Amino acid sequence: MRCTWQIGLCVLVLASVARAEDAKEKKSDIPSTSQTYAANEITATVQDAKKTNEGGSITIRVEGVTLTTGGSRSMPRAKGSHQDYVFDLTSDAKIRIMHLPPLLDDNGKKVSRTPEELQKLKGNSALPGYQAEIGDVKPKQIVKVQLVKLRSAKGDDAKKLYVSRVIILGTEETHPNAKQPEKKGDKN
Fold it and tell me: Do 162 and 123 belong to one domain?
């Protein structure tokens, strides 16, 4: 009986050690930029962005157009479509914002930033825009994301894409390619 109890205790200790090692391996599953190579850069609309203990993830919507034909004599028609994608961020992903939000004083009036403040907000990076965090990425923002793949990955890992850089370009309302709202007076 005593031997069975000792074997059971050893099994429990080994299982907890194995779980702790698995947890360490999962944290290291998030690659850094040095472990990746550039795959693509796309502009899309943010649907969701989350910060997690391991890094973060971003859900983006990519808009597209599909041409369809009704028959041999009909004209092709364009049909809008979209696809949502979820990507994990690399452990050292860079988040940048192209246009800073206005700085307001105590009375609610806009105040200009000094060149020193702007340089501090830009940081020591040669990347465009100003430093930001994953918390600054909000739904309906237009972003440019740099997609990367793991170096020397095999199998399914070779196909997985990560995001190493997010540049916030603006919101759907302020982006130049955004749809303009119809005016109430127009009945054309």
Answer: yes
Contacts of 119 (CB under 8 A, 6+ apart): none
List pLDDT tens digits, range 87-139: 999 988 999 999 988 888 888 899 998 999 989 999 888 899 999 999 999 99
Q: What is the residue range of 23's domain?
A: 1-30
Distance CA 179, CA 187 (A): 18
pLDDT of residue 27: 44
Separation CA 52–CA 40 (nearest Å)? 24
Alpha helices (H) in 52-138, listed in sequence order: 115-122
Give the count of domains, the chain: 2
119 & 167 share domain = yes
CA 129 – CA 121 distance, rounded (Å): 9
**Greater confidence, 148 or 188?**
148
Query: Which DSSP symbol is given to 92?
Result: E
Cα(170)–Cα(99) distance, integer angstroms: 7
Domain shared by 48 and 114, yes or no:
yes
Residues paired with 131 in a beta bridge = 96
The whole-angstrom separation of Cα 174 and Cα 51 is 25
Same domain, 2 and 43: no
For residues 125 and 167, the answer to whether their CB atoms sit within 8 Å is no
Residues 40 and 114 in one domain: yes
